[in-house]
Write a structure and sequence with these properties.
single chain, alpha+beta, Alpha-Beta Plaits, 2 domains, 4-stranded antiparallel sheet, 56% helix, elongated
Length: 228
């Protein structure tokens, strides 16, 4: 089996198996480091777990496609043409879907150009990596348990009491949005809460509903946000 992997490429350039494996592993480590940095530094509301997974996958796919092309312009143009056709015929809204499409194109190109060992090693690594990312829920970043939106009609001084109520139920409270609305005599507030006990959500919502100055109260779990 080892001999077949060592001599299983019939392309114009012979395979150097240790170099192939080392290159793919180095690309994997580099992508994962960048993904962790992205998770730690992202501060917007449009965080995407799928995009984070793609940051891990794409360096591996690029390293694999470079091994398949190996300075062969015909293979390079063929790869771009196939991907262009697939991309034109299909609207890929998910970043990870693009990684899947690239994976099958690259593996097909490797098999079609006689680089059988590269296709086997790359296919095993890609499949294993995709399963690992899914099983480990890599990229999931849930900093808060609950999102609470409400309309405040009381005096601004009363917000201190509202804050104390939220702090009593939460380890961390963050007011992500505060929009004053003079026409409706009040302000629209949005809070993100890291709860002390997630099982006591109903108790928190009941207290908020009974709190003087709170109206139009809505809530949703943080996992229901766009961060998926």
């Amino acid at each position: 089996m080892t001999d077949w992997l060592q001599h299983g490429d019939y392309g114009s350039t012979p395979l150097h198996l240790p170099v192939l494996i080392l290159g793919l592993l180095l690309a994997l480590v580099s992508g994962q480091v960048l993904a962790w940095v992205y998770m730690a530094t992202h501060s917007g509301l449009s965080y995407s777990r799928s995009f984070t997974n793609s940051l891990v996958m794409l360096p591996v796919l690029v390293a694999l496609v470079m091994q398949v092309m190996n300075n062969n312009l015909i293979t390079a143009f063929g790869l771009m043409a196939v991907f262009g056709i697939v991309r034109f015929r299909n609207i890929l809204r998910d970043t990870l879907d693009t990684s899947y499409v690239l994976s099958v194109i690259i593996l097909g190109m490797a098999a079609g150009t006689g680089k059988f060992s590269t296709a086997v090693v790359g296919g095993i690594l890609i499949v294993g990596l995709l399963l690992l990312l899914s099983y480990a829920s890599f990229g999931r970043r849930q900093r808060f348990d609950l999102v609470v939106n409400l309309h405040w009609t009381g005096p601004m001084e009363g917000l201190d009491g509202l804050g104390r109520l939220l702090d009593r139920h939460s380890l961390k409270t963050f007011c992500s949005s505060r929009r004053f609305n003079p026409a409706q005599n009040g302000a629209d507030l949005s809070y993100r809460l890291l709860l002390r006990n997630p099982d006591r959500v109903e108790e928190l919502l009941t207290e908020l509903n009974q709190f003087t100055g709170v109206s139009r109260l809505t809530s949703m779990k943080a996992e229901d946000e766009s961060e998926v």
